[in-house]
Amino acid sequence: MKVPFFRPDLREDEVNEVADTLRSGWLTTGPKVKRFEERFAQMVGAKFAVALNSCTAGLHLALEALGVEAGDVVLVPTHTFAATAEVVRYMGAHPLLIDCDVDTCNMDLQDASAKIQALRSGELSVPIPKDAPVVGIMPVHVGGYMMAIDAIAEFADEHNLWIVEDGAHAFPAAWRKDDSSEWIRCGANTARVSCYSFYANKTITTGEGGMAVTDDEEVAERMRLMSLHGLSKDAWKRFSGGGSWDYQIVAPGYKYNLTDIAAAIGLHQLARAEEMRQAREKVALRFLDMLADVSQLTLPLNSNDRIHSWHLFPIRLNLEELSVDRGQFIDELRDLGIGTSVHWRPLHLHPYYKDSIGWQAQDCPKANSLWPRLISLPIFSLMTEDEINYVASSVKALCVRLTR
Predict the structure, then answer these.
(1) DSSP letter at 195?
(2) Which helix (H) or strand (E) covers residue 175, if one does?
(3) How many helices and strands (H and E) does the chain possess?
(4) Which of the following is catalytic: 2, 47, 115, 202?
(5) Residue 13, Cα to own-chain centre: how many angstroms?
(6) Which residues lie below 8 Å from residue 31, measured CB to CB, with a gap of 6+?
(7) DSSP string computed for 39-91
(8) Mean pLDDT to the nearest integer, 377-391
(9) Which pLDDT band holds residue 168 (cuts at 50, 70, 90)?
(10) At residue 327, does pLDDT exceed 80?
(11) Residue 382 pLDDT more than 70?
(12) Average of pLDDT values for 217-241?
């Protein structure tokens, strides 16, 4: 049997909506993008949404709208994809890389406090001026397991930081405090701006695409303006069938807008978002059950104070109990026809951050210890019972065969 790492869940509704868009003659940003924005904002509980061509674009525009300047410092987890930190570099600012929590892989706020203190005392290994302004924090909800929103908010208030939330994995995800009945969705005023990814393998997809949400109208308008070459607000009327031929550039913007073709897919994906999340959750619960007694593995957390989006199912190899390393284990799974991935090599271990900026391996020891052990197993809403059983039984059998 062959099981891919991911298989997109697309139905005839998406196909027909795309065909309708093509026949309409309105292919770029237009009425379907507007409808997608409105429905997405309503679903997450935000006032404003800006549809974009990637989550990276959303993060970049958020920092620009919040006025990040060259020389500023922004707290970023080292355990994340390149985009979270690279947008900080786009602004000429310094990403202050923070170690991860060993149980969740999310940002460790204790290490964040320690890193700020090290910066201020001049003891940080990276050459960032000790008086550089620390202006913001960018938490990432790894795999769709949300960080504690109250802890992030308290930390941000204590250090006078804005929050830009990298929710690339976290739709539809939610958190609640102390088993409260009130669920707080990622994006429901959980940050100044929350950004999401609709890449092909995400929990909903538009092929390529993203969304940024905020309750701040001024920030939303600035992001919208900068997402299309800095065109004035009046010029945007051209993209809804009104307005004149004339336009004005009011800022040196970017080309980050989403198309109606992509939004046509997104509208129907959005309508089925919770259905697909529950299908992923079913896969995750089966994996958790079938692999619970495998001592060679540590499984991802699942707790009753989170609605987990289950974008990823990352297992950790207990290498001291195995006769192979992570690369060999992946090769064995590949030979069995099972697709995998790894999320992620910590940023401080990449050449750019090591060689060009000066981060050292010892700066984030928890991420170092996790990196050689991580493997993401296939998890997607169209995964069949046979595929679930095959993946779990194959992993279990490999652990037995490759034990020390």
Answers:
(1) E
(2) strand 174-175
(3) 13, 13
(4) 202
(5) 26
(6) 240, 241, 260
(7) HHHHHHT-SEEEEES-HHHHHHHHHHHTT--TT-EEEEESSS-HHHHHHHHHT
(8) 98
(9) very high
(10) yes
(11) yes
(12) 84
CA distances from 189 to 20, 48, 368 (A): 34, 11, 33
Q: Which two tokens stand for residue 390?
A: 């095959």
State the pLDDT confidence band at 244, using cuts at 50, 70 and 90: low
Give the burial class of 386: count Cβ atoms within 10 A of its Cβ; 0-12 exposed, 13-18 middle, 19 or more buried.
exposed
Strand (E) or helix (H) holding 164: strand 162-166
Q: What pLDDT sits at residue 247?
A: 81
Q: In Å, how far are 197, 240, 304, 333 from 47, measured between CA atoms?
A: 19, 20, 28, 45
Strands (E), 294-381: 297-298, 306-307, 313-317, 374-377
pLDDT of residue 246: 76
d(CA 255, CA 253): 7
Rg (CA), the chain: 22
Please state, for a pLDDT cut of 90, what percent of the chain lies above it.
95
Please state whether 52 falls in left (phi above 0), alpha (psi between -120 and 50) or beta: beta
**Residue 32 near residue 174, CB atoms below 8 Å:** no
- C-alpha neighbours within 13 Å on the C-beta side of residue 299: 18
Q: CA-to-CA distance for 371 and 367, rounded, in angstroms?
A: 6
d(CA 373, CA 318): 7
- Residue 47 bears catalytic tag: no
The whole-chain average pLDDT of the chain stands at: 96
How far apart are alpha carbons 59 and 286 in whole angstroms? 34
CA dihedral 181, 187, 189, 195 (to 10 degrees): 160
* CA–CA separation, 296 and 18 (whole Å): 46
